[in-house]
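Could you join me in thinking about how sequence relates to backbone shape in a protein? Would you write everything just below, so we can both look at the same thing?
***
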Amino acid sequence: MRNVPRPLPTSEAEIASVLDWGVALAEHDRWLRRVVSSRLGEAQSVDEVMQDVALAAVAQRSPLLDPTRVAVWLYRLAVRQVLIYRRKTGRQRSLVGRYAERGGAVNPIDAATSPLGWLVRDERQQMVQDALRRLPVRDAELFVLKYAEGYTARELAERLGVTISTIEARLHRARGRLRIELAFLAAEFEAHHHE
């Protein structure tokens, strides 16, 4: 008797019974954290957003229809949760700003410079970080996953739901953009220190 492939689950209840969300989230946690971190630009908020991702995954707010594409689905869910978080914190900053204008206290966190600026002493590393920040978010995110996490083009294609050639083309364009930004920042640095 031939093995007949089992049909994919179609309802949310069937998918929920097939997937162990604790295991799925743990398996994808590290690279999703990098995605969230690269999009937020602030390490202290990553845990909060990752909790929101886990809650949204378990609650199936936007249902997973194909259990073979968990990585792609979680990636899109993480991006969506970052956008929601940014909107929420933007409104909070706006309220704090209006309160400060009326004579209230100023939020000390907003007055501080980037935490990365305090941690990274080497000028080259700082320049690379600055150049990455100037890149489109998708390019910076791709660099983090490729070079900090060590994912191959194939792994990135699977996780992001695109072809390998798309990943390679995006990396090629992103490297070119990074070179341009680094050259600009280096010229700016030289001009500033030789005045």
